[in-house]
Amino acid sequence: MSVITCASKYIFLQISYFFSFFLSSHAVCQKDQVAADASDCYLTFHKLTLHLQGDKEPGWLKQLFTDFISFTLKLVLKSEVCNEINSLAQMLANFIHDLAANFVQDEDIRLDISLASVPLIKANYLESHHKGLVLYENYSNVFSDSVFSPSLLTESRMLYFWLSEHILNSLASAAFLDERLVSTIRGEKLQALFEMEDTEAQRKAVQTIFQGASYNDSVAKVWSLAQPQIAVQPEGTVVKSLVAVEVSIFPVGEEPLMVLYMEKEITVTIQAAYAEKKLILHPLDSRIEFKVFKCTADPSENDPSIRNFLQTMISVVGIPEVISRIEPTLTSLMNSKGLNLFEIKNPEIITRKGYVIVQLDFSFPNHLLLDFLEKRL
Fold it and tell me: 277-330: per-residue pLDDT in tens?
């Protein structure tokens, strides 16, 4: 019940109304992104009565006037309510799309998440296919077919993501071109690598390589010589990369001296998980093949013990050390996009031949909804 007071001191309109509302929404493709379409909006009035009161009983002309106002109000209310709902639905769809676009962008590297086809509304879920093109300066990639089919998914989780190994390879290529696949190790970290075991062979190899220099005066640089190749298999994500390692010492008052340089092809299988708001990468079996090996203290390479020691050190300590640096970096990147603000429930990262499925339940953080309302309304 509501009362509208008019300007005249003789007349006021008392409006009594009861109505039912029905909204049928569906997803459409608008400007290459998912758009909510709530155009099938129905507002049915069960009762809308205007009582015109004044000095006299209303005659037929005034009754005609009130009937006309009732009809007009029905049209106006229906139009305004449905327009507002449609507008809010579209603003919310744009807001979520902007959040997603920001999440898959870091500085100059980003993903084109525009639609590849018209989204589909199913009985229990929305299905949308996005391009997933990696955009980085002049780098371009092309679509690659995948064996994935949406029918492979269940309907028991709130949200599913599918990523092809093609996208992962493209992201790795962009990271390589952006010179992000570089790391330096020094001090205690370097000491822990080279002193993983206290044996006579280890002490001899370290003495030969560093020539008595302190770890604090030494730096190991690790970088990728070519873009890594990624293949997704049921047992995990297989990463193959040609890596260079250079160890240099910096004697006080002297020029830096390179004491070790090697190039090796490393193939490692990694299983990924997400727990307690952190990305967890677990390396499984690894294979190492030396391509180039130069040691200043052993230019003739007559001492195989140095190479054997380094191969063991890389597989047992070196690879886990690099991965332990990647974990917090990627976790920090995701948290900078606000992932840690969501309550992620029972996330699963499932690898299949050629693609990865991420399935989870989640709670939408209230602050994002408030941010949306404050900015858009």
Answer: 899 999 988 898 989 888 887 777 666 778 888 888 888 888 888 888 889 988
Structure tokens that stand for 193 in this block: 């690598």
Specify the pairing of strand 109-112 against strand 133-135: antiparallel
Identify which of 118, 115, 117, 170 has the alpha carbon closest to the alpha carbon of residue 142.
Answer: 170
- CA 233 to mean position of chain CA atoms: 21
First to last CA, the chain: 26
By the 8 A CB rule, do 159 and 127 touch? no
Cβ atoms of 258 and 211 within 8 Å: the answer is no
- Whose CA is closest to 85, among 24, 153, 140? 24
The whole-angstrom distance between residue 329's C-alpha and the CA centroid of its chain comes to: 14
Positions in the chain short of pLDDT 70: 1-67, 74, 78-79, 85-86, 89-90, 92, 118-126, 139-152, 253, 301-303, 368, 372-373, 375-377
- For the segment 218-276, what is each residue's pLDDT rounded down to a tens digit? 888 999 999 999 999 999 999 999 999 998 888 776 788 888 898 999 999 999 999 88
Can you read off the two tokens belonging to residue 365? 């953080």
pTM over 0.85: no
Q: How many CA atoms lie within 13 A of 78 on its CB side?
A: 20
Residue 115: which of 95, 100, 137 has the closest Cα?
100
353: which 2 tokens?
């031949």
